[in-house]
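Technical annex B. To support the medicinal chemistry partners, we prepared a structural model of the target in complex with manganese (II) ion, based solely on the information shown next.
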Amino acid sequence: MHILVTNDDGVFAPGLLALANELKKMGDVSVVAPDRNWSASGHVKTLSRPLRVKKVTLADGSDALACDGAPSDCVALPVLGLLEKPVEMVVSGINPNANLGHDVTYSGTVTAAMEASIWNLPGIAVSLDAPEYNSRDLDYSTAAQVGALVAQKVWDKKLPKNTLLNVNVPYCSMDELKGFKITRQGLRVYRDELVRREDPHGNPYYWIGGEAPSGIPEDGTDIGALSKKYVSITPLSLDLTAYDCAQMITDWGLAK
Ligand code: MN
């Protein structure tokens, strides 16, 4: 089995190394990841400039490739033949913060797994529900083991076409985990605020500031599962069609 590991936090992020090392127990692992942080970059295809790839050495001495493209580019290049061996599965992460509800449309971690799905490969995104934004000192061991466990299951059982898995892991030890829940996307509550400042020349500039998002911990959702210390596995589809809405729009009479 040849697994591609990528992320959106940059090739040297500790979460990626923890995940890659756990997956090496299952098969061959290649790491191709962005050379910088691409968190909240969404699904990207870089077409307007060349992409550069260079060999780097990770903290444990292992080899990896760093690319100056987005996480989804880091999946597309290997899938299109960058590596000698064809890629058979893509695992993205471990993101230091959970990717829940609408986050999946922003998340580079999740969109890397979406890119795998576009190429008919199994894709898994793994994120850790860490309590704070200090990603350096986090313990990724539980999330890495969970990621490998899910990857093994996906390998054995296969995923339907156009489906990827969004896995979110509570921040606790393996022993403290309550178990696994298969969930739907919950409702994130974004608390973004427009921060307006002035540059030295008197021109305004803007930041999207505010507090980190919260969420509604409803039963059956990703947010609900994490709040009760369960691993959340949400199967995602790239078909975003709002089937419930089709009849209503048809009734507008435009499609006579
Ligand atoms: Mn990230």
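Notes passed to the chemistry partners:
The two ends are 51 Å apart (CA to CA).
The helical segments are 14-23, 71-79, 103-106, 108-118, 141-157, 222-227, 246-250.
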